[in-house]
Design goal:
Blueprint: E1 6-14, H1 21-24, H2 38-41, H3 44-47, E2 70-73, H4 85-93, E3 97-100, H5 105-113, E4 117-120, H6 123-135, E5 140-144, E6 149-151, E7 157-159, H7 164-172, H8 176-182, H9 184-193
Parallel strand pairs: 1-2, 2-3, 3-4
Antiparallel strand pairs: 1-5, 5-6, 6-7
Length: 204
């Protein structure tokens, strides 16, 4: 997992509420156990018609959306079943961060554990971002993980929450297992200074 400090990129807005994980990546793509080819299935039912042809009306298929690395999505993004394939598909497509007024908890946890930054903002900031994309699809925003801020092109700035442990892991590019492995020396020292307790039971 690559360390994340700050992300500057173009946004694309998908202002739809309650986008569930089946809409993000259809169940037929869940047979794979790695990330290969999952970008093809991202928002498949919306990106393609019944014959498999790109839907020109879907926002990700528009020329101005090409190259966007930050998705601005509606409230309750990632609801539904738990599947790591959802953040994998988003990352495979090229997204580095998702901004939303609210994320489903399981999706948020899966995304952060896989290095996909989820940024929860207030409703006013969300609406500003949607309007920004409509007015200027080439506009860029900056997400500073260390400072926990989102900065719009005009300098407006808002903070977003993230728990300290997850922030540490993302900044250092490690998952939970990687964090524990990095602390191996400290764990060994602690165990050495705290001998195992011997529990005896009284005999009658």
């Amino acid at each position: 997992m690559q360390p994340i400090s700050a992300i500057t990129g173009r946004i694309v807005a998908l202002p739809v509420q309650d986008i569930d994980t089946d809409q993000i990546i259809p169940a037929r793509y869940l047979k794979v156990t790695d990330k290969s080819g999952l970008a093809e299935g991202l928002f498949y039912a919306w990106r393609f018609d019944a014959d498999g042809r790109p839907n020109p009306d879907f926002v990700l298929n528009r020329p101005e959306a090409q190259g966007a690395t930050i998705l601005v999505a509606g409230r309750n993004f990632g609801c539904g079943s738990s599947r790591e394939h959802a953040p994998w598909a988003l990352q495979g497509y090229g997204f580095k961060a998702i901004i939303s007024p609210y994320f489903a908890d399981i999706f948020r946890n899966n995304a952060l554990k896989n290095g996909l930054l989820t940024v929860q903002v207030d409703e006013e900031t969300y609406q500003q971002l949607v309007s920004l994309f409509e007015e200027d699809p080439t506009a860029e925003v900056t997400i500073d993980l260390a400072a926990q801020t989102v900065t719009l092109p005009d300098g407006r700035q808002t903070r977003f929450p993230i728990d300290p442990f997850t922030k540490h892991c993302l900044l250092h590019g490690v998952d939970q297992l990687g964090f524990l492995l990095n602390e191996e020396a400290a764990i060994a020292a602690y165990e050495a200074s705290h001998p195992a307790r011997v529990v005896t039971t009284a005999r009658s």
